Amino acid sequence: MIFNGGCYCGNVRYQLNLDSPDDARMSICHCRNCKSTLTREFCDSCGSGILEYGGNAGENTYVFYGSLDEPDKLPPKGEFFCKNRAEWMPEIPGLFHKREIKE
After folding, report:
1. Taking a C-beta distance cutoff of 8 angstroms, is the pair 28, 80 a contact?
2. Does Transport show up as a keyword for this record (predicted)?
């Protein structure tokens, strides 16, 4: 399956090729600040975040959910760092919920 995405201004476009939507590890992260060195790729025209990798991410590459053209086709499976979730934000039903990244 092919999923397309890009930045706000259209300068950056990409295709994400997955055998199945289940191969995507979609999640919502409530961390306050990344504590590891990561490389972040973004559009140099509009500043939209596209992806990040490196550091504690290991061999994983994380695509910014908001950069997908059709994010509803890859819904999140869980939430991390729920201890930092804003008080006004409700827990999302049907997902796993972890207070930390590793529980």
Report:
1. yes
2. no
Q: Looking up tokens 């290991």, which residue turns up?
A: 58
Strand pairing report for 96-97 and 78-80: parallel
4-16 pLDDT per residue, tens: 999 999 999 999 9
Between CA 87 and CA 66 the distance in angstroms is 23
d(CA 67, CA 54): 19
- Nearest Cα to 97, choosing from 34, 30, 43? 30
What pLDDT is attached to residue 9? 97
Q: Which helix or strand (DSSP H or E) is residue 2 part of?
A: strand 2-6
Q: How far apart are alpha carbons 30 and 69 in whole angstroms?
A: 23
CB 55 within 8 A of CB 36: yes
Could you read off the pLDDT of 59-98 as tens digits, one per residue?
778 888 889 999 999 888 888 889 989 999 999 999 999 9
Instruction: State the pTM of this model.
Output: 0.74
